């Protein structure tokens, strides 16, 4: 269940970051509200996961998944192009997060 909460936090953070681009330097009020609200919700749910997932592991998942999802969202919704080095780099990030989750024995306390 904790990983579902973390996944929700990540998705909301991706929405907030996508909205941040659309806020155009905080000049578009509707997008500003989406951005700020999204970050508040995302960080709240991230904080809940830190009760049971070690901080380093949770943040590795958060940042790794966030990078990949933000890049995908920018590609789909904002026309950002991804070249081979970007895709390879994201694959390495995903691999690193997987290694941490599969082989790490850190505990939350």
Automatic annotation (TrEMBL):
Q: How does it sit in the membrane?
A: Multi-pass membrane protein
- Keywords assigned by UniProt, alphabetized: Cell membrane, Membrane, Transmembrane, Transmembrane helix, Transport
**CC terms in the record's Gene Ontology section:** plasma membrane
**Which stretches are transmembrane?**
31-50, 57-78, 84-103
Q: Which SUPFAM superfamilies match?
A: Multidrug resistance efflux transporter EmrE (SSF103481)
> Where mainly found?
membrane
* UniProt subcellular location: Cell membrane
Report the InterPro entries cross-referenced here.
EmrE-like, Small_drug/metabolite_transptr, Small_multidrug_res
Q: Name one GO biological process term.
A: glycine betaine transport
Record keyword Transmembrane helix present: yes
A single Gene Ontology MF term assigned here is: amino-acid betaine transmembrane transporter activity
Q: Which domain of life is it from?
A: Bacteria
The UniProt family comment states: Belongs to the drug/metabolite transporter (DMT) superfamily. Small multidrug resistance (SMR) (TC 2.A.7.1) family.
Task: Report the protein name in the record.
Answer: QacE family quaternary ammonium compound efflux SMR transporter
Q: Which organism is it from?
A: Sphingobium nicotianae
């Amino acid at each position: 269940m904790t990983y579902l909460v973390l996944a929700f936090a990540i998705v909301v953070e991706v929405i907030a970051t996508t909205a941040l681009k659309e806020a155009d330097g905080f000049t578009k009020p509707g997008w500003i509200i989406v951005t700020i609200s999204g970050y508040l919700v995302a960080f709240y749910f991230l904080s809940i996961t830190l009760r049971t997932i070690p901080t380093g592991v949770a943040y590795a998942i958060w940042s790794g998944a966030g990078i990949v999802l933000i890049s995908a969202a920018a590609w789909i919704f904002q026309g950002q192009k991804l070249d081979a080095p970007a895709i390879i780099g994201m694959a390495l990030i995903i691999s690193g997060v997987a290694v941490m989750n599969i082989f790490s024995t850190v505990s939350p306390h």
